[in-house]
Design brief:
87 residues
Length: 87
């Protein structure tokens, strides 16, 4: 399991989550999806995330979820976070 950053982070990028991450797996960036949609936000590297959960309560816009708890309306963000690190 890893944590996922979702839609509420777009153009917000508060970075309180970055400050508490013990493994430095949260990074700011821009990803353009296959449909041409641009996501300017923070991303969590699923390969480096240790599932500690420290980031989730720090997010002021409630954009961070365990990958098993991502709301259905933002389900695509699990793949978006992973693809950001594959580019």
């Amino acid at each position: 399991m890893a944590y996922v950053i979702c839609e509420p982070c777009i153009n917000v990028k508060d970075k309180a989550c970055v400050a508490v991450c013990p493994v430095d797996c949260i990074h700011e960036g821009v990803y353009t999806g296959d449909d041409g949609t641009t996501y300017d936000m923070l991303f969590i590297n699923p390969d480096d995330c240790i599932d500690c959960g420290l980031c989730e309560p720090e997010c002021p816009v409630n954009a961070i979820f365990a990958d098993t708890d991502v709301p259905e309306k933002w389900a695509s963000f699990t793949e978006i976070n992973a693809k950001f690190y594959q580019q």
